[in-house]
Design brief:
With 189 residues, this protein is an all-alpha fold. 78% of the residues lie in helices and 0% in strands. It has seven helices and no strands. Helix 1 crosses helix 3, helix 4 packs parallel to helix 6 and helix 5 packs antiparallel against helix 6.
């Protein structure tokens, strides 16, 4: 019974990891192609300038010196070239690629808490008022923990704050829509 669910979960995780790797490889491939074009153009310009400098000239016997290529100028031209703006998917994948294990852990914590809470609800261990109170207290606790961790570890604190805020919003939604505990105005406040 649980084997099928775990296999589906592992398949989804492997798909996400393969998409992240594909995105990184394609980004590196684009950068490498750009650098190869730049180096090919620079090489052509240098060989053309050398051939002009070595060829005897009928009008003048002096050659024009080739200015040296400044390394800083070359790097600026590589970085400031026609790089396209990243789209939303690329930005999301770049965000997901940094500290992806911690973000996966946050997702699994949310998934585990959701499973536990739904199991407790199915067995009537917790009543409606206790469910909402538990959701608000746990969400606020994770939010405070995230704020505390934000000083030392920015990404970890931000993820914890997101998890806590998501827990609070989902709990308030359930309190309003499922149990009708709050009015729309009080739930918004």
């Amino acid at each position: 019974m649980y084997t099928k669910g775990y296999m589906e979960f592992i398949t989804v995780v492997l798909c996400i990891i393969s998409i992240m790797l594909w995105s990184r490889v394609s980004s590196l491939r684009t950068r490498l192609e750009h650098m190869e074009r730049y180096l090919a153009d620079a090489t052509k310009n240098i060989t053309r300038a050398e051939s002009v400098a070595q060829a005897p000239s009928a009008t003048a016997s002096t050659t024009v010196p080739i200015p040296p290529v400044d390394a800083q100028t070359a790097l600026q031209s590589v970085h400031m070239s026609e790089a396209p703006e990243p789209n939303i998917l690329a930005s999301f994948l770049a965000w997901l690629a940094t500290d992806w294990l911690m973000k996966l852990g946050g997702f699994l914590v949310i998934l585990g808490l959701g499973w536990f809470v739904s199991f407790a609800f199915a067995n009537q261990w917790i009543g409606p008022m206790g469910r909402i109170a538990l959701g608000l207290v746990v969400g606020a606790g994770v939010l405070v923990l995230g704020r505390y961790r934000l000083g030392a570890y920015i990404t970890q604190g931000a993820v914890l704050m997101f998890v806590g805020a998501t827990g609070i919003v989902l709990t308030l939604y359930a309190a309003r829509e499922v149990y009708d505990f709050f009015s729309p105005a009080s739930a918004l406040i």
